[in-house]
Specification:
alpha/beta; DNA polymerase, domain 1
């Protein structure tokens, strides 16, 4: 995809008041990003027969796509991404996860360091769980990961302390492929003590985020991140995590998206 198209995708994500659901709905009714920017406000409204975008958000899009400040911000993000070796993968790109299709709340643009190969596999396992896990939990995470790799599957997790990091590490040690979904920009290693794991993931797996480079972690970003882990996974293994833990948002999204959940306590 050419520079201008990617830029338009980033612009759309920067328009305040227009979230992922509205962005996807807009692309659905327009057909592609170019049409989103060429149709008049009235023409978009005519196509929005079911009101999935809505008059107010169509107005925001109409204003935002002409906003010079938003365009400058998008240009800076795209330049920063290129300079840092971060791929911007949009809904129209071949690498965009097919598992996202039909899920209206997925990001329309992803920021990726490494090689995104989610579409190359017929099986993906999410392995998540407690940050403070037992030795048994660690052993279970490793065994679960190795089984997934042996099925020619890939492993998805969040690069957090505990279960997540053990899953990523086990996948890499068994020459498997693994995706770390971050709740911050892809150029920031969080937690910082996972720097060596982060670097290995870039080399032999990938770092994926819906946030542009430079975005620092905020607490509200992690529950949002969890929906992406759920969507990328065919089944999710939840290890030593209580029902009130942070993993619960992932479980709820699995149920929403029709993904299988396996709890291991």
């Amino acid at each position: 995809m050419d520079y201008e198209k990617k830029l338009k995708y980033i612009i759309l994500t920067l328009i305040k008041g227009v979230g992922c659901v509205s962005q996807n709905a807009l692309l659905d009714i327009c057909g592609n990003i170019e049409t989103c920017f060429t149709l008049s406000k009235e023409e978009i409204h005519e196509r929005d027969t079911l009101g999935k975008v809505g008059e107010h958000r169509i107005h925001l899009v109409s204003q935002g796509r002409e906003n010079k400040q938003i365009r400058l911000e998008a240009e800076a993000i795209l330049k920063d991404s290129i300079d840092k070796g971060i791929a911007v993968i949009t809904r129209e790109d071949n690498e965009y996860p097919k598992r996202f299709l039909g899920l209206g709340d997925m990001p329309i643009a992803l920021y990726v360091k490494g090689k995104l190969k989610i579409n190359d596999t017929s099986y993906s396992a999410g392995v998540i769980g407690a940050r403070r896990c037992t030795q048994e939990g660690k052993r279970t995470a490793i065994e679960t990961t190795v089984k997934a790799v042996n099925k020619n599957g890939l492993v998805v997790s969040g690069m957090a302390k505990g279960i997540d990091s053990y899953a990523h590490t086990a996948a890499l040690k068994t020459n498997g492929y693994t995706i770390a979904v971050l709740g911050n920009g892809p150029d920031i290693c969080y937690p910082p003590e996972h720097q060596s794991l982060y670097e290995e993931l870039i080399k032999r797996g990938c770092i994926l985020s819906e946030y542009p480079p430079g975005t620092k972690a905020r607490s509200y970003m992690f529950p949002l991140r969890n929906r992406i882990i759920a969507a990328l996974s065919d089944e999710v293994f939840v290890i030593e995590a209580g029902r009130n833990s942070g993993t619960q948002t992932t479980v709820e999204n699995c149920e929403k998206y029709g993904r299988k959940v396996v709890r291991i306590t």
